[in-house]
Each structure stands twice: as structure tokens, then as C-alpha cells.
Specification:
Layout lengths: L1 E4 L4 H6 L6 H13 L7 E4 L14 H15 L5 E5 L1 H8 L4 H4 L3 E4 L3 E6 L2 H6 L1 H4 L9 H15 L6
Helix pairs in contact: 2-8
Bound molecules: uracil.
Length: 160
């Protein structure tokens, strides 16, 4: 199973490892709640460099295409891909709006299955995590449910 994010941020550039900053810390908690061992999953990103000023490149499709060979190498032997956020959803399924598509299962290239969920950074930005406004929730339970579903699919659950 692989978790694929959007692009490395400042922490990931320093640590040379995906999801090692605040979003990574939250991801660790979510994985634990879903019963997934981080050490047993591949962690990758669609884009391989930190975008300038952390803004997505204007030529996003080109950037995705440029990085796709490295991603493919990262995904060798992987049958289930969990996409975190909109960019993996777009890059791997050509779909948009992760909030609508999360939890759905897609068959993608090279015999793989894709399940998208919300990006942990989105949860960190949300009032849910800050506990400020309960009407603006992006519940972490939703992400945990998506991760559990991906695990079941990877373990052979017949979802078709
Ligand atoms: N956000 C991502 O999408 N990927 C990382 O590796 C870190 C933060």
C-alpha cells in the first residue's frame, strides 16, 4: 500500500522524507487510528520538489507529467494507492474535488486501485482541529474511515 501526497514542504526538504512536518505528525496519528503501520507503507508525493512559495505550479499538468516517472518507480509492486488531497486525485484519476470523491474506489493505471481522502494539512487548517467552530468540521474520523477502507481493499476485500 502507498500513501501519495501532493508535494514536499519545508520539513520534507530538510528531512529528505515525506510527511515529516506537522501534517506528517497528524498523518501518523490517523494511520495509528486506522491500524496502519507507517513503516509498512510506501510514502510518496506526486510532485517531487517543493513548489516555489508553496504555491502549486501554474503548469500543473506539466509538473505532474515531469515527476510521473519517479512516482512510478516509487509505486513499483504497489497495488493500493491512498491519495491525500486534490493533486493525487487529479494526477491519478483525472477527477477533481476530493471532498466529493473521497472514499470512492477507482481502478487506475497499471492494475492499481486508488482511494482518495482529505489531506492532513487541510485538517490542520480546519476549525475541527483547532476546536473553534463545530459547524466547520472536516472530521478526522472521515479520513480514518477512508484509510481503513483502503487497508481492507489492500487485504483483498472484494469491493467490486
Ligand atoms: N504535504 C504533502 O503533500 N506531502 C508531504 O510530504 C508533506 C506535506
Amino acid at each position: 500500500m502507498a500513501l501519495v501526497g501532493e508535494a514536499p514542504g519545508q520539513w520534507e526538504v530538510v528531512n529528505k522524507k515525506g510527511f515529516t512536518g506537522p501534517a506528517g505528525k497528524l498523518l501518523d496519528t490517523l494511520l495509528k487510528l486506522a491500524g496502519i503501520e507507517r513503516e509498512k507503507v510506501t510514502i510518496s508525493n506526486i510532485l517531487k520538489c517543493q513548489p516555489e512559495k508553496n504555491k502549486l505550479p501554474a503548469e500543473l499538468s506539466l509538473a505532474i507529467a515531469c515527476c510521473s516517472e519517479i512516482l512510478e518507480r516509487d509505486l513499483e509492486g504497489i497495488s493500493t494507492v491512498i491519495g491525500l488531497g486534490n493533486i493525487p486525485l487529479l494526477a491519478l484519476t483525472r477527477q477533481t474535488f476530493i471532498t466529493k470523491r473521497r472514499g470512492s474506489i477507482y481502478e487506475i493505471a497499471n492494475g492499481r486501485v486508488f482511494i482518495g481522502t482529505l489531506h492532513p494539512a487541510a485538517l490542520l487548517r480546519s476549525a475541527f482541529v483547532k476546536g473553534e467552530d463545530e459547524t466547520k468540521v472536516l472530521p478526522k474520523e472521515v479520513v480514518v474511515a477512508d484509510l481503513k477502507r483502503a487497508k481492507e481493499v489492500d487485504e483483498g476485500w472484494n469491493w467490486r
